[in-house]
Amino acid sequence: NAGDSTPTTFFGIAERGSLAVVAASDTPDKNLAVMGTSDNEVSKFKLTGTDEGWNIEKFSVVLDDGGGVSLDDMDNFSALKLKYQTQTQWGTSNWTISSGKTFGATASLGFSFSGSDRIYVPKDDSTYVTVLASIATYSGGNGAKSKVPFKMYPISGSADSFVAYGAQSGYYLITFTEPASTGFNLHFVARSKPVFAKSAWSGGELELA
Q: Residues 6 or more apart from 31 whose CB is under 8 A from it?
């Protein structure tokens, strides 16, 4: 009350909300990534905004060979893309797929977004980002290398890797608690994927049933 000298009700105003990034429960299982194929789903991330929404302008992933971040096999990938939802798409069945990018001098790869094309994380709810990997073709010992394990997960820590703005506060965020690499599954590059099918027995005595 205006006439009271001792307040009985207190209000706290938070500077900003928070953003959490974890491995999605349905991040792709261990699989073969066949040379020459496009847009293989290799990792999926769950992003959750608490107390406010977030607009992400830069999002990066890093390449790991199962023993740690690795530069050795970046040439196995002809393109990487991100599948995500914008603010207008969130809550619908519509998704945006970014343009493809290739690794440069480092094992990390950053994607930039602006305006209405930014990744949107809703307030007190979640969205998902999926990594799509296209595998280089085999060319007589050149091109993609076989039996190479890999996994990919998000990184942050600087404006070169991650940038988000609070949708309500405008807060500039360049870091989050990164999910453990153990939460993501290894995939293996292969020239082909074996397929096994059962054939009906013809009845011949010498035929292996």
A: 40, 185, 187, 188
**This prediction's pTM:** 0.85
State the CB neighbour count (10 A cutoff) for residue 39. Answer: 16
**Would you state the structure tokens that stand for residue 149, as one six-digit string?**
């394990």
CA distance 184 to 139: 29
Digit-coded pLDDT (tens) for 30-69: 999 999 999 999 999 999 999 999 999 999 999 999 999 9
Cα torsion angle, 70, 31, 61, 101, sign: positive
Q: CA angle 163-166-172, nearest 5°?
A: 45
Strands, E, within 16-135: which ranges?
18-23, 31-34, 40-50, 54-64, 77-84, 96-97, 108-112, 119-121, 125-135
Buried b (16+ CB within 10 A) or exposed e, 120-145: bbbeeeebbbbbbbbbbebeeeeebe
Q: Is 5 helix (H, G, I), strand (E, B) or coil?
A: coil
Distance CA 50, CA 152 (A): 25
Tokens 């020239």 correspond to what residue? 191
User: Which tokens is 105 given?
Assistant: 């001098």
Nearest to 200 by CA among 191, 209, 192: 209
